[in-house]
TrEMBL record:
<keyword id="KW-0627">Porphyrin biosynthesis</keyword>
<dbReference type="GO" id="GO:0005737">
    <property type="term" value="C:cytoplasm"/>
</dbReference>
<dbReference type="GO" id="GO:0004325">
    <property type="term" value="F:ferrochelatase activity"/>
</dbReference>
<comment type="function">
    <text>Involved in coproporphyrin-dependent heme b biosynthesis. Catalyzes the insertion of ferrous iron into coproporphyrin III to form Fe-coproporphyrin III.</text>
</comment>
<feature type="binding site">
    <location>
        <begin position="48"/>
        <end position="49"/>
    </location>
    <ligand>
        <name>Fe-coproporphyrin III</name>
    </ligand>
</feature>
<feature type="binding site" description="axial binding residue">
    <location>
        <position position="15"/>
    </location>
    <ligand>
        <name>Fe-coproporphyrin III</name>
    </ligand>
</feature>
<keyword id="KW-0963">Cytoplasm</keyword>
<keyword id="KW-0456">Lyase</keyword>
<feature type="binding site">
    <location>
        <position position="127"/>
    </location>
    <ligand>
        <name>Fe-coproporphyrin III</name>
    </ligand>
</feature>
<feature type="binding site">
    <location>
        <position position="186"/>
    </location>
    <ligand>
        <name>Fe(2+)</name>
    </ligand>
</feature>
<dbReference type="InterPro" id="IPR033659">
    <property type="entry name" value="Ferrochelatase_N"/>
</dbReference>
<dbReference type="InterPro" id="IPR001015">
    <property type="entry name" value="Ferrochelatase"/>
</dbReference>
<dbReference type="GO" id="GO:0046872">
    <property type="term" value="F:metal ion binding"/>
</dbReference>
<comment type="pathway">
    <text>Porphyrin-containing compound metabolism; protoheme biosynthesis.</text>
</comment>
<comment type="similarity">
    <text>Belongs to the ferrochelatase family.</text>
</comment>
<keyword id="KW-0479">Metal-binding</keyword>
<dbReference type="Pfam" id="PF00762">
    <property type="entry name" value="Ferrochelatase"/>
</dbReference>
Length: 316
């Protein structure tokens, strides 16, 4: 008999990353819904991982650390009441694996939360759908935290990072001309607008709240990391935005990727390597805020969101 049977399970979900370079092809194949990537596509993704200092391993460690950090925070706030499990969208342990582990531990009530503050039916909604289906199959009642993009502690954590970033960039060249703060997030297909999806609105709400709290008057929102499909994706992309800012004479940019909560490929490569190189070509000094990772305020945001949602298990 498990000592976790009387606990509330917490399924912590995220996109997932390979555990090693050997797993990149299987990971990419899963993202492509079972269709293996071409040799050219695989080579490009592999090169991106290899370009990141330390390779692919820190990416998985960041997610593992966040799950452990949430468990620690829940234990502090509600001793003995919660047990965290991990479920990934495109890598093991998959979302379904996480639900199965809860069932094996004897858990019958659970809360699901995604390591992404903003809701979209195409992102957080898809995680929830998979978890719901597996939980129903295994007799686990689940409630879900759909978004936490305006949680006060999340805003404070991001505000502090923007302020630290502005202080850092103020010491760099061209700072006397002013700094543009660019808030960013992963693009999604434009069709979400037709669906009335809240993703874009929530991102703008977070950006405005953080900018106001940080006292950053010169800011705008942009997109990044769009998929390569035939359908149009939300834009403008950050590379296009940088070109526009260059034409306007902007010389210093602080990127605040508020749609992401940890250091991973879309941050360490798309921003730190690709966007920074493009900015340098344009004569723009670009820096990025530090990511949340295991920040205590972010862990409290997650823990408080989970605890608040617990009362709703079985009610929807």
């Amino acid at each position: 008999m498990s000592n976790q049977e009387n606990k509330i399970g917490v399924l912590v979900m995220s996109y997932g990353t390979p555990e090693s370079m050997d797993d990149v092809e299987a990971y990419y194949t899963h993202i492509r819904r079972g269709h293996p990537p071409t040799a050219e596509q695989l080579a490009e993704l592999t090169e991106r991982y290899e370009a990141i200092v330390g390779g692919v391993f820190p990416l998985r460690e960041n997610t593992n650390g966040q799950v452990a950090g949430l468990q620690d925070k829940l234990e502090t706030l509600a001793p003995g009441q919660y047990a965290c499990f991990q479920g990934l969208k495109h890598a093991r342990p998959y979302i379904e694996d996480g639900v199965e582990e809860m069932a094996k531990a004897g858990i019958r009530r659970a809360v699901g939360i995604v390591l992404a503050p903003h809701y979209s039916v195409m992102s957080v909604g898809s995680y929830m759908k998979r978890a719901k289906e597996k939980a129903a199959e295994l007799g686990i009642e689940m409630a879900f935290v759909e978004q936490y993009h305006l949680h006060p502690k999340l805003i404070v954590a991001l505000k502090e990072r923007v302020q630290d970033g502005l202080a850092s960039i103020a010491k760099a060249a061209h700072a006397d001309t002013g700094v543009k703060v660019l808030f960013s997030a992963h693009s999604l297909p434009e069709k979400i607008r037709e669906m009335g999806d809240p993703y874009e609105k929530q991102l703008l709400e977070t950006s405005e709240a953080v900018a106001n709290a940080a006292g950053a008057e010169d800011w705008q929102f942009t997109w990044q990391s769009a998929g390569r499909t035939r359908e149009p994706w939300l834009g403008p992309d950050i590379l296009d935005t940088l070109a526009e800012l260059s034409e306007k004479g902007v010389k210093a940019v602080l990127v605040a990727p508020v749609g992401f909560v940890s250091d991973h490929l879309e941050v360490l490569y798309d921003l730190d390597i690709e966007a920074k190189a493009e900015a340098a070509k344009l004569g723009i000094h670009l820096e990025r805020i530090a990511m949340l990772n295991r920040d205590p305020l972010y862990m409290e945001t997650l823990a408080e969101s989970v605890i608040a949602k617990t009362a709703q298990i079985g009610k929807g």
